[in-house]
TrEMBL record:
Keyword check for Transmembrane helix: yes
Residue span, Glycosyl hydrolase-like domain: 102-266
Pfam families referenced in this protein's UniProt entry, alphabetically: GHL10 (PF02638)
Organism placement in taxonomy: Bacteria, Bacillati, Cyanobacteriota, Cyanophyceae, Nostocales
Native species: Aetokthonos hydrillicola Thurmond2011
This protein's name: Family 10 glycosylhydrolase
Record InterPro entries: Divisome_Glycosyl_Hydrolase, GH, GHL10
Keyword tags: Membrane, Signal, Transmembrane, Transmembrane helix
Segments passing through the bilayer: 12-32
Length: 392
């Protein structure tokens, strides 16, 4: 009887089905990653990566390195102490014309008639500023009446102003714009104490005996009549108008009176009114200063000898703030110029602009005023600018 071979009962790998092996490996992997809680990505991240060059068809942007290994960077303290250096502007030296303290032009009281509006007035101020003018001497009184609404005029004479058309705020606009431009405004009391037959107060003045006898023929072509400041009503009118003005316009820089503040020597009777005129003006200035001490009381008059001799105007005793010598006569120009050196400046007309270079170059002349006899102040200002530019 033959013997049968016995089957092996061992656990060799050859005897295990492949499906069972896969199942065991998958379960083990699951247990390894979930139960032990090991992040395989962390394991692989610790393996050094080998950089592989990649060809890029788009050119890279070129950047300048901000530092170099060979440069020693400043410490934080040094950086904190470092300051930004800004280029310093070199100031432009002022011209001889710009060095003049007062570079003024006269504007007649008629410049604001026909209801000149705010825009017109402000543009006019800016124009004069662009022409190198820093002071506007503008008429506010003339021929016996104001170019603003005045309660003093209303109470004394029965009407509030000259019969010209103007907007009530015209001077406020002018002063405001001038100050914005760094300019000054001087109120010009044109004609001073003189009137002509066209004055709205002429008939009243005659009827009240406010006029000194005779006709003032200082200037050819027009007859003037001089109000008598020795009459209390006349003196009060001028004093009250001036006080009212500097209170109504507290920001005005100055008031100016000219050679019409005086009595012509050739008036009949040869009466010396010098002392009386001096007293009147001193009282007027005192009242103005009490009302508004910041306002300068200026005059533009003849030299002291001429003014006293021919106009009873001993202005050296008036205690005014500033004096400008009126030099409208070419025949005496040099003589008047010598006086002007001792005061605030000189006044000429647009007919004397040929003298401008001489005046600008003269360091002893502190200020220059120009009166446009032509009645074209804008053209005069343009001419002044052209002349001073050509000089430079």
């Amino acid at each position: 009887m033959s013997r049968q071979k016995k089957k092996s009962t061992g656990w060799g790998c050859a005897n295990i089905p492949i499906s069972v092996i896969i199942l065991i490996l998958g379960g083990g992997y699951w247990w390894f990653t979930h139960k032990v809680n090991i992040d395989t990505s962390q394991l692989f991240s610790k393996i050094p990566k080998i950089a592989t060059p990649v060809v890029n068809s788009t050119p890279a942007k070129f950047s300048i390195p901000t530092s170099s290994p060979s440069v020693n960077l400043p410490s934080k303290n040094e950086q904190a102490s470092a300051k930004t250096i800004t280029p310093r502007k070199i100031p432009i030296a002022p011209t001889a014309w710009e060095k003049k303290a007062i570079r003024g032009i006269y504007l007649s009281r008629y410049q604001i008639t026909n209801n000149a509006d705010e825009q017109t007035i402000r543009e006019r101020v800016r124009y004069y500023h662009s022409q190198g003018i820093n002071t506007i001497i503008h008429g506010v009184w003339g021929n016996g009446c104001t170019m603003y609404n005045s309660q003093v005029m209303q109470q004394t004479l029965g009407y509030k102003s000259c019969p010209n058309e103007f907007q009530d705020q015209w001077l406020d606009w002018l002063i405001d714009e001038a100050h914005k431009q760094g300019m000054q405004v001087h109120a010009y009391f044109e004609k001073g104490i003189k009137i002509d037959k066209n004055s709205p107060i002429y008939d009243l003045a005659v009827s009240r005996q406010w006029i000194v006898p005779g006709v003032d023929k200082t200037y050819a072509g027009i007859d003037h009549y001089v109000l008598d400041v020795e009459v209390p009503e006349v003196a009060n009118l001028f004093r009250n108008v001036l006080v009212e003005f500097v209170q109504k316009y507290p920001k005005i820089d100055a008031v100016q009176w000219d050679d019409y503040l005086g009595y012509y020597a050739e008036l009949p009777g040869k009466v010396d009114r010098t002392a009386k005129l001096t007293t009147f003006i001193q009282q007027m200035i005192t009242a103005m200063k009490q009302a508004n001490p910041s306002v300068s009381f200026d005059i533009c008059h003849h030299n002291p000898y001429w003014a006293k001799r021919y106009f009873a105007a001993d202005w050296q005793k008036w205690k005014v703030d500033r004096v400008f010598i009126q030099d409208y006569n070419d025949a005496n120009f040099k003589e008047e110029l010598n006086y002007a050196k001792n005061y605030a400046g000189i006044a000429i007309t647009d007919k004397q602009l040929n003298r401008l270079k001489e005046l600008v170059d003269n360091r002893e002349i502190k200020g220059i005023l120009v009166f446009p006899l032509s009645g074209q102040p804008e053209e005069t200002a343009s001419s002044i600018k052209s002349l001073v530019q050509n000089k430079n």
